[in-house]
Amino acid sequence: MDLNTTIINLSYTNGQLNFNISIWIILILLAILLIFVYRFYQHTKNFKLVKIKIKLGNFGNAEFTPNREDIQIAHKLWTELITRKAAIPIVEEDVIVEIYDSWYAIFTKTRELISQIPINAIQNESTKILIRIATDSLNKGLRPHLTKWQAKYRNWYKYKEDALKTKTPQELQKEYPEYELLIADMKQVNENLIDYAEQLKKIIEAKN
Questions:
Q1: Is 58 left (phi over 0), alpha (psi -120 to 50) or beta?
Q2: Whose CA is closest to 151, among 162, 159, 139, 163?
Q3: Which residue from 37, 56, 59, 91 has the least number of CB within 10 angstroms?
Q4: What does pTM read for this prediction?
């Protein structure tokens, strides 16, 4: 087969405009089109339906079919939870200020992940649900406890820091006047965070 090496050829003969394009250009354009269609399909194809129930923030039930980007977002949120003192059970040896530092980091990272979601992705109903889950978990799940306890406890702890010369942080924190109430509320939030991580894992596993 004789393949013309001329990429594009324009000629005018006998009052007629002739236009010729190299078969190589046609093949390249076809390949680009196929790649674009494949990537578009991979990005937009849906996975299996997930049914979740979020206790944190009393979000309740949600049922949707996530796309690839939703699963990536859920995986990032899940990773943040299980690698910090959030979705790990609180024990007596834990230090309260360190837990609060960890929860603050969760706040920061979640806001960062949400802000990085492309505008076009936010138009997807499944992504809207995921964003609402993430924001409600922060604003209605974590924030009420932090608003009630964090500032009061940190101020008390800072005032008592000199006692750390002779006591461990674990020993000192038990002297907080409302320690039992604080730790009970903190453990309840912690249990909901653990459940939240488990629900996010269902989204991650939605891939067919």
A1: left
A2: 159
A3: 91
A4: 0.75
